[in-house]
Amino acid sequence: MAAAGAQFAGLELLATAVVALDEHFVVRYANPAAENLLATGAKSLLGQPFLQLFAERAELERALADALTTHWDYSAQYVTYSRAGREPMPLACTMTRIDASFAYAQVALLAELRPIEEQLRHAREERLVFEQQANRELIRNLAHEIKNPLGGLRGSAQLLERELDKPELREYTQVIINEADRLQRLMDRMLTPHRTPRVESLAIHEVLERVRSLVKAEFGVEIERDYDPSLPEVLGDREQLIQAVLNIARNAAQAGGAHIVFRTRAVRQITILRQRHKLALELQVIDDGPGVPAEIQERIFNPLVSGREGGTGLGLSLAQTFVQYHQGVVEFESRPGRTIFTILLPLT
Length: 348
Hints:
It contains nine helices and twelve strands. The chain is α+β, with helices and mostly antiparallel strands and 348 residues long.
């Protein structure tokens, strides 16, 4: 087995759980990530029939045989790892046939195992990125189309106002001018994210303290701090990160959250937008408001989608855009009385 260990030495450092099988589907190697995931030492796994680890033995055996004979990779979305005395663990399993020209003689297949929840999170992230790109392009085109007639509308209202003798009639032109200005500001907000980020090294807690003071001044809400003081500095655009967190915190305050918490932690070995990072920032905005309405949860990051009467539906969309500019992502979970928006950002 020493030769097999040397053959797969590159797998030792992977954060993904990988198990090597022989042609009879017996475990011949398991990397440290597999030991952690399966909560079993490599010595206990070696020599064990791989199929005995899972509930779907017959189906998995057929799939393994197909992978072995047809040279196709096989992905199983729902394989249940059976653990004595513990809850079963649903896993995603991907099988890859080893080329005989370089494989150790006893190894025929590699099995990559991931928790289902992680797979679902990756799928959500990819969907969010695709939707944000499409939405940004749509909004940018829409904003450009609206800005031009707005200028003409405002200018015409100003010219008309000069010709009116009665002050009460000028009230109507003022309504036109003010509404045109409001729409102009809205269009500017739609176009703002498209500038290039100004990257610098910054302390994320300084960003959060700035947001705390703004939210307190606007809503009178005190925000509790739960900071990890050991966090390193972040490379990013200060103004964009302030705006991203501010939009999320404002949403929490406007939704009626009486208790809001800013929480920061470091997370290790995490995949964000299909990129593996040794270290990342987890920034959470937690509130005790009524929660995100169930009917809009799937679309909450889309522009013009809002659960609040009178809301523009741009705040969370812009927050997601700004965070994606930093190779990060915004996620959330919500139920009445507890909503958590989580910003994940890579740390260098």
